[in-house]
Every structure is written in C-alpha cells, then in structure tokens.
Design brief:
By secondary structure, this protein is mainly alpha-helical. It has four helices and no strands. The chain has helices at 3-17, 25-71, 76-86, 88-129.
Length: 135
C-alpha cells in the first residue's frame, strides 16, 4: 500500500470523525459500529506507516547519513535531526494515524455513554410506567 492511498483513507476517516454525533439511539449504535471499524483499520494502517518509516530511514541512512558522517563530523543530535527529516512524510502519517486512532477511542467512549444514559432513562421510565417507583 502506498503513502498516498493511506493518506486518502486517513482523509476519509478524518472527515467522518469530524461530523456531529447522532443522538437517536439506533443511529448512535450504527455510528459506534462504524467507528469500531475505523479504530481497527487505523491500528493496521499505523503499523504499516511505522514500517514504511523504518524502511525509509534505513535505506536513506545507508545512502546519505553515512556519507556525510564520513566526510564531516556530525554530532549525534545533528545525525538524529537528519534521520528524522529523511522520513518526514512518513512520520506525519504515523502521527496522523495515531491521532485518528485516539479520536476513535474517545468517540467510542462518548457513544457508550450515550447508550448507557439511554438505558438508564428507559429503566427509570419503565419503573414509573408500571408503578414500581419507590421513594
């Protein structure tokens, strides 16, 4: 899978996660199902993005950093900065996927709270409707 394909998936998920949460219980449940799929998918894409980052750093370090280090002295800090800049696009993707994954977790928690609230309201309503309310 290419970086561009992963970015496209991220953009689609990001757009969906930025929409308003439903408040109707059946829509909440459907939204939860959808976000659970996004959560699973972002975990996989995150692992792929990290693998791409490591691969890019490894190949570029051999070609670039070692040549520079042999010709000129570079401090460890400068070498690390060069390594990080080599895979900047991949690291952006790693960070983005991490944030989308986190958004999924938070939205799932919120949806779970809505469902719990609805269940409690139904329980209380049921008690009142059948005269089971006790003071």
């Amino acid at each position: 899978m290419s970086i561009d394909k992963i970015k496209k998936e991220c953009a689609d998920m990001q757009a969906e996660l930025e929409t308003f949460m439903p408040d109707e219980i059946n829509a909440v449940i459907e939204r939860g199902k959808e976000i659970a799929v996004y959560h699973a998918r972002t975990g996989y894409l995150l692992a792929m993005a990290k693998q791409m980052t490591r691969a890019k750093k490894t190949s570029e370090i051999g070609d670039t950093i070692i040549k520079i280090a042999q010709e000129n002295y570079l401090s460890a800090k400068a070498q690390n900065a060069l390594v990080e800049s080599i895979a900047a696009e991949e690291m952006f993707l790693v960070d983005w996927l991490d944030r989308i994954n986190s958004m999924c977790v938070h939205q799932l928690d919120f949806l779970r709270s809505i469902i719990s609230k609805e269940k409690e309201e139904m329980r209380i309503s049921h008690q009142f409707n059948y005269g089971n309310y006790r003071q």
